[in-house]
Every structure is written in structure tokens, then in C-alpha cells.
Design a protein that fits this description.
- The protein has helices spanning 25-52, 55-62, 66-72, 76-94, 106-120, 124-136, 145-169, 178-198, 205-220.
- The chain is mainly alpha-helical and 229 residues long.
- It has one domain (25-220): Tetracycline Repressor, domain 2, CATH 1.10.357.
- α1 crosses α4 (76-94), α1 crosses α6 and α5 packs antiparallel against α9.
């Protein structure tokens, strides 16, 4: 599945928890530095994976000392958590804010996933980051293990809810099993991303994924309609 989950974090993770205070130039500069650290970390995690990424090299890319980086992010685990939260927040703002989470429409959700995939392909390094991290995180002691486990559970629950809503409204075939649909979607998305990475980005993943989502819609909708434009 594309590297996003339609449930926004509570706040902007690049900013430290704020007391009631006026924002001065010093605080603004600190927030900007945290943002640049997160952006640099995204690139390093994408290129090397979490395990091989170096905090010292991330700090050097930002133009600060290692001690300076630790002032903003106490350890590598905290920095990784912020990177993942920032990516989710961006996806919610750009795409999934349009989805009614109380009464989610499965066809609309699939369309948003397709839009999100097209956007992700403009940022290949970040797609590679998620592919690498999700593979590394299968180990229970990996710092992102709980994040990815919970993310897959949330995605599955959302798709189950959308499928149930569609069956109840008559929009989807009454035999639609939301859990099966969710696991299929996740498996296809993850497999496609791996194949795309192995092709060095030359394979038309977006075309293949959109065709898959369209076929899935035609299979599930009561009137046989596809994904649409």
C-alpha cells in the first residue's frame, strides 16, 4: 500500500511541544532546523535503510554537529518516528482529508490511493525508504516494527469499514469481504513497489496499479463500475 494512512497525527511532529509563548526568531530557527534534519534523515533512510543510516552523516548534511542533532532528536529511534509521522501527515493533508472517515466510500478510497501512488512516484527515494523500512521492520526488535504493524492494522480496519458501508448501502456486492480485500490490496501494493524498485524505476507501476484498482472496483461494485477518472 502507498506509504500513508488516513488517520492524521495529533500535531506537526517537526515542532517540539510548545508552551504558551511568543514565537521568536530563535524558536523559528529551531523549528526550521528540525525540519531540515527530518528532510535529510528521509534521504539517508531511503538510500541506506534505517539500520545503515548514520546520525553523524545526517548531522553533517544539515551543517550541524552530532551533538546539535541530539539536541533536537535525542536518538535515532526518535528521529525515525518523526520521519514516519511527517510522511503520514503529508499524505493526510494532500489526499485523505477528503475521505469521510465515519462513512468511508471504498471506491473513493481506491481513487485516493491511486492519486497518492502517482505522487509517491515523483519522490522515488521516499518510496524506497518505505520499502526498505517495512522489510527491516519485520524483526520484532526493529524500532519501526510496532509502527508498521499498527499501520497495517489501521489500513485493514479502514478498508473493512468502507467495504461494510458499501455492502450496507448496496453499492458493493453483498459477498464482499473487507478483510480479504484489505490483505489483497496491501500485498499487491507492496509487491508492486518492490518490482518497481528492482526495475530502477523503469516499469510503469502507476499504470499497472491503476489497472488493478479498476479491475478490483469492477469486481466489487454492484453495478460493475470501475475506478473512473
Amino acid at each position: 500500500m502507498p506509504d500513508a494512512e488516513p488517520t492524521p497525527p495529533a500535531a506537526n511532529p517537526t515542532e517540539k511541544p510548545a508552551r504558551t509563548r511568543r514565537r521568536t526568531g530563535t524558536y523559528a530557527a529551531a523549528d526550521d532546523r528540525r525540519r531540515r534534519i527530518v528532510e535529510a534523515a528521509m534521504g539517508h533512510f531511503a538510500e541506506r535503510g534505517y539500520l545503515n543510516a548514520s546520525m553523524q552523516k545526517i548531522a553533517a548534511d544539515v551543517g550541524i554537529s552530532y551533538a546539535g542533532l541530539l539536541h533536537h532528536f535525542g536518538n535515532k529511534r526518535e528521529l525515525l518516528r518523526t520521519v514516519l509521522e511527517v510522511r503520514e501527515l503529508q499524505a493526510v493533508e494532500l489526499f485523505y482529508s477528503r475521505l469521510d472517515l465515519e462513512r468511508p466510500d471504498l471506491v473513493q478510497l481506491l481513487g485516493l490511493i491511486c492519486e497518492h501512488t502517482a505522487f509517491n512516484l515523483t519522490q522515488p527515494g521516499l518510496m524506497q525508504m518505505y520499502t526498505l523500512l517495512s522489510a527491516e521492520a519485520t524483526a520484532e526488535d526493529h524500532p519501526a516494527h510496532a509502527y508498521f504493524r499498527e499501520r497495517y492494522a489501521r489500513i485493514t480496519a479502514l478498508i473493512e469499514k468502507a467495504a461494510g458501508q458499501g455492502v450496507s448501502s448496496g453499492a458493493l456486492d453483498p459477498g464482499t469481504d473487507g478483510t480479504t480485500v484489505a490483505r489483497e490490496l496491501l500485498a499487491v501494493a507492496d509487491g508492486f513497489q518492490i518490482q518497481w524498485g528492482l526495475s530502477d524505476g523503469t516499469w510503469d507501476m502507476l499504470g499497472a496499479y491503476r489497472n488493478y484498482l479498476d479491475r478490483l472496483c469492477r469486481r466489487l461494485t454492484a453495478d460493475g463500475s470501475g475506478l473512473g477518472e
